Amino acid sequence: MKFLYISGSPRKNSNTDYLLNLVLSITGGKFIKLTNYDMKPCHSCRICIEKFKCVINDDMSKILIPELLESDGMVIGSPVFFNNVTAQLKIFMDRTWAIRGKLKNKIGGTIVVGRRYGSESAITAINSFYLKHEMIVANRGVNGIAFNENEIIKDSESIEASKKLAYRLIELHELLKK
Question: Which domains can be identified in the chain, with CATH numbers?
Answer without folding.
Answer: 3-177 (3.40.50.360)
